[in-house]
Design a protein that fits this description.
By secondary structure, the chain is an alpha+beta fold. Strands 7, 8, 9, 11, 12, 13, 15 and 16 form an eight-stranded antiparallel beta sheet that branches. It has a six-stranded mixed beta sheet with strand order 2-3-1-4-5-6, sandwiched between helices. A six-stranded antiparallel barrel has the order 17-22-20-19-23-24. About 5% of the residues have low confidence.
Length: about 625
């Protein structure tokens, strides 16, 4: 299987980056007329080279200071940096800035090409080599191969290819099993094909006819075609420079900085927590300073909130929260670059710790401990800290967007934490977890709310579930149900229908209330089928109206009284006798009965007949058919 490696050029303007790429690949990466006319790379250029079982995608980036923002758009996803230094000029300002950017982005390895080596003598070439070695001392390129080349004569090109191949073979392959993600660096229309976007596929894979999503707009589109290395392919893998032909969208609707990704997986953000590091050459960064933020191909403005102190000195690092003007798609461990607001120069960069950050209190040790755990902890420690910091719990979708982990990784990590009793799985569908401590707090909140309800409502049997949830702080449904189930397993509560009460609790009526309860029951039983209004009965009682209503509800819940309609309440024995009357009528006169016949049988007026018949319909004793009832 072919290995895909992205090589990014870096170096000062006019040091021969594009010429070198053309000499290696046979492709001139300068694609714009203005670039060819002026002899400099303005925007990103791309070229490809196959050596053995390795396919190289070259990202040729601009060297001019004014075009560094374009360079940053192509720097994401680079596996190997090819640092280009001209033999006749040696280290220059943009060499330093490009190299600083490569270090800040965490590019793991690379090599150095000394271009234009045919323009200097051996002594000068040795001097440039010494300057490069001094410049790279202590960096990730300290022991990198340094190869003198000449694009004009071809000298050194084969040696450079072999060094590229050697470095590439030692480069870890990107994980094609992760969620598909491709930051877009170009969007254009091609005759006969329509919209095409390009970018470096930084994770996962994508196939023809697959549905994908454009972030942050959340637009779903279909992959019509794929190209890489100048040829059509059926499937693109992580590590490939890829051109994707999209169906159902105009290229003008897509901008550099957007991200193609797996549908429904990522969550765009305007707020992230990170560790930022300033370059030694950077000025002091004050709290709340604004800076240009570059991540992947995205660029926006960030307000930098320092979480430790009021200022950050040159060469130092600190935890910070970045509040962005525009939405971006980031995951933990993604790297970014910060450039000074004005004048625009690279001042530092950082690593994302939490892409779904909340506002924090500054200089808070708990916040610092939390972020340091996310930054350096194991996967189990990361998930435990994240869950503890999220009182409402986390769903599978929320965890996937927050971490970028696969479902299997989330479930496996959660299972380990369940085993150590640090978290609880609330539900499997949807998969939802919460910290064990937070679940216990919810249990305590429910207990307290139930006790307070009973104290305030001694005549009511229990609190409705929805009311209980609200009084306990409105936890998410899955957390509420799990806490309630825990109380049930502990025999602390009893649940009947939608009501919850303390286990073993009985309603204790005062002598006056017990007398009123008996009076209500007797009054409705004596009335038979021609009952008085509820208000007329309750008005005769020796208790106030509110308590009388609660006593009435007790009788209805106990089944002593039956509510037939809004103001029609009957004793259960009266309802039983009515059922017997209907059964006798069916036996003696047939299974159909009219309203008039029902009035005669029951001995009631139409005022009572209609509500009683409708009640019998609901109870499936009768069924209305036209103007008659069929007795079932």
């Amino acid at each position: 299987m072919e290995k895909h490696v992205i090589v990014g050029t870096a170096g000062h303007i006019d040091h021969g980056k594009s010429t070198l790429v053309e000499a290696l690949t046979g492709t001139n990466p300068d694609r714009l007329e203005e670039e060819k006319r002026r002899g400099i790379t303005i925007d990103l250029g791309f070229a490809f080279l196959s050596l053995g079982e390795v396919s190289f995608g070259f990202v040729d980036v601009p060297g001019h200071e004014r075009f560094v923002r374009n360079m940053l758009a192509g720097a994401g996803g680079i596996d190997i940096v090819l640092l280009v230094v001209a033999a006749d000029e040696s280290i220059k300002p943009q060499t330093r800035e490009h190299f600083d950017i490569c270090r800040l982005l965490g590019i793991p390895q690379g090599l150095v090409a000394i271009t234009k080596s045919d323009l200097v003598d051996a002594e000068m070439l040795d001097l440039v080599r010494l300057e490069i070695e001094e410049f790279l001392r202590g960096s990730f390129l300290e022991k990198a191969p340094v190869v003198p080349v000449s694009a004009r004569t071809g000298a050194g090109l084969e040696a450079l290819k072999q060094e590229l191949l050697r470095v590439a073979q030692a480069t870890p392959e990107k994980d094609v099993q992760r969620h598909f993600r491709l930051p877009i660096d170009r969007s254009f229309a091609t005759k006969g094909f329509g919209t095409v976007v390009t970018g470096t596929l930084v994770a996962g894979s994508v196939e023809i006819d697959q549905e994908i999503e454009i972030y942050p707009t959340r637009r779903r589109v279909r992959v019509r075609g794929l190209h890489s290395g100048g040829r059509p392919i059926e499937r693109a893998l992580a590590g490939q420079r890829t051109a994707i032909n999209l169906a159902g969208i105009e290229h003008t609707e897509i901008e550099r900085g957007m991200v193609l990704g797996a549908p429904g997986v990522f969550e765009p953000t305007r707020k992230l927590d990170a560790r930022i590091t300033l370059l030694n050459s950077a000025p002091i960064l004050k709290n709340r300073a604004r800076a240009h933020f570059h991540q992947g191909s995205a660029e926006t403005i960030a307000e930098v909130i320092l979480l430790e102190g009021e200022r950050l000195a040159s060469g130092q690092s600190a935890l910070a929260q970045l509040r962005l003007d525009d939405e971006v798609v980031v995951l933990p461990e993604d790297r970014f670059i910060l450039r000074q607001f004005s004048p625009v120069v690279t001042i530092g960069g950082g690593v994302v710790i939490d892409g779904r950050a909340r506002r924090h209190r500054r200089d808070d040790t708990e916040v610092r401990d939390f972020l340091e755990t996310l930054e350096t902890g194991s996967r189990e420690e990361f998930l435990a800290a994240l869950t503890e910091a999220t009182p409402r719990g986390l769903t599978l979708e929320e965890l996937r967007a927050r971490t970028g982990w696969l479902e299997g990784e989330i479930r496996e990590t959660a299972a380990k934490l369940v085993g150590t009793k640090k978290i609880r799985i609330l539900t499997e569908q949807p998969f939802t977890i919460v910290s064990a401590e937070m679940l216990e707090q919810c249990v305590k909140a429910l207990r307290q709310a139930i006790e307070e309800f009973h104290a305030a409502n001694p005549l009511l049997p229990g609190i409705p579930k929805q009311d209980l949830r609200g009084r306990a702080g409105n936890p998410r449904v899955e957390l509420f149900e799990a806490a309630l189930a825990d109380l049930g397993r502990r025999a602390a509560v009893e649940i009947s229908g939608g009501l919850v009460q303390r286990a073993g609790r009985a309603i204790a009526l005062s002598p006056q209330e017990a007398q009123a309860k008996e009076l209500i029951a007797n009054e409705f039983e004596r009335a038979g089928l021609t009952v008085p209004s509820v208000s007329a009965v309750l008005g005769k009682l020796p208790v106030e109206a509110a308590r009388a209503q609660k006593i009435l509800q007790i009788l209805i819940r106990e089944g002593t009284l039956v509510k037939v309609a809004e103001d029609f309440v009957y004793h259960r024995r009266t309802v039983a006798r009515l059922r017997d009357l209907i059964a006798t009528y069916r036996k003696e006169r047939g299974d159909r009965i009219t309203v008039i016949a029902f009035k005669d049988v029951a001995g009631v007026s139409r005022k009572y007949a209609i509500p009683l018949l409708e009640f019998l319909d609901r109870e499936h004793v009768t069924r209305r058919v036209g103007d008659e009832r069929v007795i079932l």
